[in-house]
Amino acid sequence: MITDAVRERARALAEDEGLPAFVYDLDALRSHAAAVRSALDVPGGPELFYAAKANADEPILHALEPYVAGFEVASGGELEHVRRVLPDARLAFGGPGKTDQELATALRLNVERIHVESPYELARLAQLAQEIGREVDVLLRVNLKSDSGRKGVALSMSGPFGMDPEAMEACRPILERAPWMRFRGVHAHLASGLDAPDMVRQSAEIVDWARSYGDVEEVNVGGGMAVDYADPGRIFDWAAYAKGVATPDVRLRIEPGRALSVYCGWYVTEVLDVKRAHGDWYAVLHGGTMHLRTPVTKQHDQPFTVIPTGGPTGDSGGHPGGDSGGDGPATAEPVTLVGQLCTPKDVFAREISAGRIAVGDVVAFAMAGAYGWNISHHDFLMHPKPGFHYLSERG
Ligand SMILES: *Cc1c(COP(=O)(O)O)cnc(C)c1O
Q1: Looking at residue 334, what is its pLDDT?
Q2: Which residue(s) pair with 116 in the sheet?
Q3: Do the beta carbons of residue 91 and residue 139 sit within 8 Å?
Q4: Which of 46, 51, 142, 251 has the fewest CB atoms in 10 Å of its CB?
Q5: Which CATH number fits domain 90-256: 3.40.830.10, 3.90.76.10, 3.20.20.10, 3.90.1150.10?
Q6: Catalytic residue among 215, 248, 321, 342
Q7: Model pTM greater than 0.90?
């Protein structure tokens, strides 16, 4: 699971006191993205955009660029960032609560599609585009009460996102009055965490609904392709999805984030202490969930690899009788991995049988490439920030 390049760098960082750190394997990201892209390459298959909010680090965007058709951005900040990093990339701008300033920025920075969230937003966009003197292409974001794939949905996107069919109707007269605003089709992002068969059903529902709404050239069926934190090797079946959704007469687009970038990142740290409290074993790690909040927000065990180092290498002052290779405690019992925060929520993984774990060992948490550092509360407790390393054979 852990790549050789990451393992090697993790060891080196441990020796150089460079932990904790995020280590991204850009070559692994490129091969994954290339595989996804080629799986989608069937007649009538979907065009691939990357949802930048999953991880918009510059090296990640550069590595993905050759394999994706474009990028979906969800705020004015992301929009300006991605436009600066990739001046020629095709962009789609979505997200709730767009300000006039953000909409104007989108018009100025040549966003290819704006995904409109409400009739009021559509009316404001029409007016701004007229004032600035730009034409604009829109998809209307629909909020459907989808039945497909209810089970296993990690995050249902109902609620305030997009427009119900009634609000979609209210858009028609606004569009008619503003011919400089071109209706291209429908957008929907209904749930995340769906596997391929459920995603095929959901996408088909969206396409059917879009056809019933009107003459649509294109349908963006969103992101949300499943990843499995409990079984990282079980990846979304892109080929089956592409075959299942392929539609000859409508241009299809998808915009996954997590399922593209999650696998390329590791949060690498080291064991500071191993202790027992009321019968339970804990490994206290350098850093914490202020760097990698994902296991807290998703309430899961973050998958990890222990890279034994035999404990602290300093030969001085070892405690005689210590049962690790170094001079600190160790355990082979099921262990809970925690960080340095003064909260019981600072847990990466609970009661895991991981073999022997000792003070000084390196722990590399996998699947930290998406919704990791960028969703975390970095400043809580004022610990130092981690290092960031982007590995690439291409330099
Ligand atoms: C977050 C988001 C995505 C990406 O979702 P993933 O679960 O990361 O694939 C795509 N589209 C929209 C509108 C989103 O809000």
Answers
A1: 98
A2: 140
A3: no
A4: 251
A5: 3.20.20.10
A6: 342
A7: yes
